[in-house]
From TrEMBL:
Domain of life of the source: Bacteria
UniProt-recorded Gene Ontology molecular function terms: FMN binding; oxidoreductase activity
An annotated GO cellular component: cytosol
InterPro entries: Flavoprotein-like_sf (IPR029039), FMN_Rdtase-like_dom (IPR005025), NAD(P)H-dep_reductase (IPR050712)
Name the UniProt record assigns to this protein: NAD(P)H-dependent FMN reductase
Residue ranges annotated for the NADPH-dependent FMN reductase-like domain, each copy included: 9-141
Record Pfam families: FMN_red
Species for this entry: Rhizobium paranaense
Length: 182
């Protein structure tokens, strides 16, 4: 039986051009099998600062676009660095815009973590995202240590993760969890 294609929406917590978190998301996009598409969100850096007075009729267009992308996605992939033992402000701002809306509850979510460190941000994101009723899929957790490495070293780590099938395995476990829930 042919399975329905799935679309995943990837959210990066770093705005850096040379972000390792973004690089990991791009690597996942490159290994995604036929029938699984991954779009990487480029809206987070353009969101205004969250203000509850600007929800409802006054919701900014970028927030509406982000929310629509999330609504249409079968699952979310989050790759977020740790800043000062916490969630980077820009990423938390994006989450705050989504808290009171109906797009995120029960949406499956996978963490793709690009650092050998940063366990505190994972803990904090888990708390925040669970509070927002997202469905984190723990067995899909993927850690590929790119942070702090040269461009060349990152390419080697990613090539190895691809060769061993680690990237594909994380994605597969996420896809299986999504398919099992529908
Ligand atoms: C302002 C700032 C604060 C940081 N604080 C932490 C931290 O508390 N813990 C940690 O493990 N790394 C910390 N880092 C390192 C980043 O997590 C690391 O550089 C990561 O690669 C950044 O992600 P990116 O490459 O996707 O931009 C910090 C980096 C910056 C710029």
């Amino acid at each position: 039986m042919t399975q329905r294609p799935l679309s995943l929406y990837a959210l990066c917590g770093s705005q850096r051009q040379a972000s390792t978190s973004l690089r990991l998301l791009e690597a996942l996009r490159l290994v995604s099998p036929e029938g699984i598409s991954i779009e990487i969100c480029d809206l987070i850096g353009n969101l205004p600062i969250f203000n509850p007075d600007h929800e409802g009729d006054r919701t900014p267009p970028t927030v509406k676009t982000l929310a629509a992308k999330i609504r249409d996605a079968d699952g979310l992939i989050v790759s977020c660095p740790e800043y000062a033992h916490g969630i980077p402000g820009g990423f938390k701002n994006a989450l705050d815009w989504l808290v009171s809306r109906d797009e995120v509850p029960f949406k499956p979510l996978m963490f793709a973590h690009a650092s050998h460190r940063g366990d505190l941000v994972l803990e904090q994101l888990t708390e925040v995202l669970r509070t927002m009723s997202l469905r984190i899929v723990p067995e899909a957790f993927l850690r590929v240590p790119l942070a702090g490495k040269s461009d060349e070293a990152q390419a080697m780590v990613l090539a190895e993760a691809q060769r061993t099938g680690a990237l594909q395995a994380g994605l597969d476990r996420f896809v299986q969890a999504i398919r099992a829930s529908v």
